[in-house]
Amino acid sequence: MSNAIVLGGSRGIGKAISDALKVIGCEVFAASKSDIDTSNLDSVKIFLENHKQTDILVLNTGGPQAKQFSEISEEEWKTYHNQLFLGFCQILQKIKINQGGYIFLISSNVIKEPNSKLIISSAYRAAFTEVLKILSKEYAKQNISCINIAPGPINTDRTKELVENIEEFKKTLPMKRLGEPEEIGNFVKSIVQNNIKYLSGVTINFDGANSNYIF
Predict the structure, then answer these.
(1) CA gap 83, 59 in Å, rounded
(2) pTM (2 d.p.)
(3) 184-207 confidence digits (pLDDT tens)
(4) Where are the beta strands (DSSP E) in 113-158?
(5) Cα–Cα distance between 22 and 18 in angstroms, integer?
(6) Each residue of 115-141: b (16+ CB within 10 Å) or e?
(7) What are the DSSP calls for 41-77, one per residue?
(8) Calpha distance 74→52 (Å, rounded)
């Protein structure tokens, strides 16, 4: 039986991943914000004192409100610097991923197609993507796979916060629907269940053909 730690595992995409991994017999710790708040480095430190190793690590957290660059406060920059970047870095520095394990990052399509109203998310998620890409070469020596999943419009509370009229928005999408969190959960489950290891150091665009970029 494999052990898994899923950050943000109590709702949305994180919950879907947690539920899917449980189906294949993984022992899952689905961490909520009360267990670890990556915007608070003291919270991260306490969490790491109690969780020192795992087979599967899912790095997943929410993002900031939509704002124009001129409206972002210094405090918001600092908060999300911790939440989306430094907190994750500290986790990877301290937690041991067992040989043959997996690290999944749930980022966002804004790392490749920046959004002017989500500039904090675009900047910090892209920065951590660079960190994970570099580290993937070191983790590969221990047969640990690093996979960055970059979701587009998914049927979560986060999307409902960002989009005023969901039904009208769906009509603009190639598949005329939002992606479901369970689709991402099943993707992660299939990678683990089938022991797919050579897919590593990559970013998977999970957006129903909505993006305009190639790579």
Answers:
(1) 11
(2) 0.96
(3) 999 999 999 999 999 999 999 999
(4) 145-151
(5) 6
(6) eebbbbbbbbbbebbeebbebbeebee
(7) HHHHHHHHHH--EEEEEEE----PPPB-GGG--HHHH
(8) 33
